Each structure stands twice: as C-alpha cells, then as structure tokens.
C-alpha cells in the first residue's frame, strides 16, 4: 500500500519525517516504495527547519498562516490552528495534488499531536477538505495523545485533545490512536527521547505497507495482504501494534530434524509475537470492542506454515470475537517471526471517553467562572455610578 503522508504541527511533522525515512529504508532494503510523497505543514518556521527526511523545498515543507502568526506558531490555541488551515487549505491541497507520484497513492495518512495548536486544529480541517475533493482515496488520521504530565499541568491539553478527537472522528475514514504515554512506560529511559518514540510509532506500519507492494515472487505470501484488505479493515477508532520473536530452529528445519517439541515451540513463537503486538498496541484498548481486525505474519518462508497462520487466526478470534478478521503472510524476515496487528472500528475507547467527559466538566466550570467575572464586573459598574467624579 502506498500513502501520501502529511504531518501537521511539530509532532505531526516529525512523525511524517519518520515515515519518509521508513520509505527510504523500504527502498534500500527491499527495492519498493510505500510512501508516494511526504509533506510537513506548520505555522512555525523553526519546526519545519528541524526535519531531515522530508524534502526541504517549499513544496514539501509548507508554511501556513504567515500573516497571522509571523512564522511563530499559534501557541496552544487549536481554534487558531483550524482557522489558519481553513484560510490556507487550498494552498496545501494544491501543493499535494501537483506533487510527483500523487496518482500512485492508495490513501492519505494525516498526522498530528492532539494537544498542540497547529496540528490539533489543522488536522480535521484539512482532512475534511481532502475528503470533499478526493472521494476515491480514503483519508486516515494518526492522532498522538499527550503524555500524562502534560495533562496534569495544563487544562488546555485535555480540551485540545477532546476537540481534535471529536472533529477527526467526524471526518476521517479511520483514526489511528497513538498514546505517547505508552512508549514511556515500555522503556522509561526514552522519556525525553521523542525521535526514538517516533520510530516506535511508525515501525508497525513497515511490513503492513510493504507486503502488498512486493514484486518478487519469493517475497509474495500465499495470502497477500494488500491495500484492499487494509482499506476494508480501517474504520473509526483504530490501534496498531507489532511484536517479534526470535526463532532459532532454522538449521533443524533445513536438515529435516524437527521433532514434536520443536514443532510445538515453533507455533508458540507465533502466539508470543502476537501477544507482544497486542500488549504493545499504540493505545490501551480491549480487543473485545473491535469490530474489524487484521494480522500480518512475516517470517522466513520455511518457518511459515498454514498451521501457524491458522492458529494465530483462532487466537485473535478468541480475543476479538466480534471482529471480522483479515490476515496475510509475508515471507520476508530472517530468524524472526514478526506479527503486526490492527484493531479497528473500536466501539469503546476508555481514554477518548475520559477526554470527552473531562472537557464537558471543564466547559461548565469555565462558564461558571465567566459568569462570576461578569457579576463582579457589573458590580463595579453599579458602584462606579454612585462615586462623584472630579472631571
Ligand atoms: P503544534 O506544533 O502546535 O501542532 O503542537 P505540537 O505538535 O508540539 O503538539 C504538542 C503535543 O505533541 C504534545 O502532547 C507533545 O507531547 C506531542 N509531541 C510534540 N512533538 C512530538 C514528537 O516529535 N513525537 C511525539 N510522539 N509527540 C510529540
């Protein structure tokens, strides 16, 4: 599957940059392209300058809102991010439309951090514009949720996240939810290392996008997972993850000396990798809530057999009984079994629900505060009248 990737704001731009690097890797290691083109859109010149994977010309790094923001961003005001994106929407879309290899793409992937200003506001607005213009290509969003410490120190974080999530859900074909906090917990030294987190966020897309683009016979699986399967799966709230387990049986398999214990352990490696994929999903969710799912197994061709794929299928069905499950195999890896899992059409996501409830209470608290201020203000006005003036 080939994507047009567009990152908005600092977070979105950096992750789009990581996708551009992922494509370079696919090109060098596998001789295929998974990204038709990558763009970064921002109101902040400095953020655009810090990128390395996206081409540096103005047709790939797109500055918006120059007049309103002077190239210094929108602070944390996502309404301003949305307004600037609305005003410059045609410029963004025209730049993307006239870019090289536009027609090769199967879908759009638009990315932003929910808690910021530019990305949080621009993401839903541009998603809507693109959806209105291109009915034949689905538009997917990646929404990055803030770290816990950001939520506890800044009210605006929750408000921005809730408004961005609601708006993207209304317009995008699917919303990949990525919780920054999950990547901190997995490996705490990463705390401040955003670039490492970004590479962990994009990694699960690698095999998923490559599998359907392979041209060489030996890398084409018995059951190909192509763009059609992915498009059929992606709807609404979505989480993605991947896991891998080492296999050390290759020599035994080649020599035909695989005994029954080896065979059992081989099957176990597959479920181990799937377990890791599910526990490492980009957002904590319950697989029971998923209505559509897919898994892709990548392993050395000799180690991938029908039994393993089937077993993984029934394992996932056990976890996500309500889901329509699509699958594929990708005979690529060496010495590893990699499993990518996507859970989509999630009917409940606790974290998203909590942003919505917190924001509703926040809005009513703000209203009360505002009324209090108005009363006090009126109070001054009333008393002011009764004071003699010297003028
Ligand atoms: P904007 O430039 O106004 O759109 O704001 P940001 O993109 O900086 O959005 C702030 C949110 O994005 C916060 O929750 C940050 O933790 C998160 N964020 C910023 N940069 C990155 C990044 O490079 N990677 C990740 N994963 N999150 C980021």
Question: What is the compact description of this entry?
Answer:
This protein is an alpha/beta fold and 391 residues long.
| Annotation, overall tally of beta strands | 10
- Helix percent band: 40-55%
User: What fraction of the residues are assigned to beta strands by DSSP?
Assistant: 15-25%
Name the helix and strand elements from N-terminus to C-terminus, one letter apiece. EHEHEHHEHEHHEHHHHEHHEHEEH
The distinct bound ligands, ions and cofactors come out as: guanosine-5'-diphosphate
- Which structural category fits the helices and strands? alpha/beta
Number of helices: 15
Please tell me what the overall shape is.
globular
What is the arithmetic mean of pLDDT?
Answer: 91
**Uncertain segments of ≥5 residues (pLDDT<50)?**
none
Report the span from N to C terminus. Answer: 76 Å
Using only CA atoms, what is the Rg? 24 Å
Strand order of the largest sheet: 3-2-1-4-5-6-7-10-8-9
**Largest beta-sheet characterization:** 10 strands, mixed
């Amino acid at each position: 599957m080939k994507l047009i990737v567009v990152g908005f704001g600092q977070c979105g731009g950096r992750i789009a940059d990581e996708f551009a690097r992922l494509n370079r890797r696919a090109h060098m290691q596998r001789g295929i392209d998974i990204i038709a083109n990558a763009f970064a859109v921002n109101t902040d010149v400095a953020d655009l300058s810090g990128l390395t994977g996206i081409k540096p010309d103005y047709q790939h790094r797109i500055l918006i809102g120059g007049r309103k923001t002077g190239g210094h961003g929108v602070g944390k005001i996502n309404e301003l991010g949305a307004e600037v994106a609305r005003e410059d929407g045609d410029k963004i879309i025209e730049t993307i439309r006239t870019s090289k290899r536009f027609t090769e793409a199967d879908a759009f992937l638009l990315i932003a951090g929910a808690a910021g200003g530019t990305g949080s506001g621009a993401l839903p607005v541009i998603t809507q514009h693109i959806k209105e213009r291109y009915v034949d290509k689905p538009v997917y969003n990646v929404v990055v949720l803030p770290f816990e410490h950001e939520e506890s120190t800044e009210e605006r974080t929750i408000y921005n996240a809730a408004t961005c999530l609601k708006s993207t859900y209304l317009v995008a074909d699917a919303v990949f939810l990525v919780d920054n906090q999950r990547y901190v917990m997995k490996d705490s030294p990463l705390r401040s290392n955003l670039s490492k987190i970004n590479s962990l966020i994009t990694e699960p897309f690698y095999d998923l996008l490559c599998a359907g683009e392979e041209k060489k016979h030996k890398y084409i699986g018995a059951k190909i997972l192509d763009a059609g399967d992915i498009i059929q799966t992606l709807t609404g709230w979505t989480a993605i993850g991947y896991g891998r387990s080492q296999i050390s049986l290759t020599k035994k398999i080649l020599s035909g000396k695989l005994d029954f214990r080896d065979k059992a352990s081989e099957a176990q490696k597959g479920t181990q990798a799937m377990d890791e994929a599910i526990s490492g999903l980009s957002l904590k969710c319950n697989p029971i809530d998923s209505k559509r799912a897919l898994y892709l197994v990548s392993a050395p061709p000799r180690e991938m057999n029908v039994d393993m794929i089937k077993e993984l299928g029934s394992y996932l069905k056990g976890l996500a009984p309500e889901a329509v499950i699509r699958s594929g195999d990708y005979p690529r890896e060496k010495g590893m079994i990699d499993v990518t899992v996507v859970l989509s059409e999630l009917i409940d996501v606790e974290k998203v629900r909590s942003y919505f409830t917190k924001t509703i209470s926040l809005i009513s608290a703000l209203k009360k505060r505002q009324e209090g201020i108005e009363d006090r203000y009126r109070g001054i006005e009333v008393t002011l009248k009764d004071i003699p003036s010297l003028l």
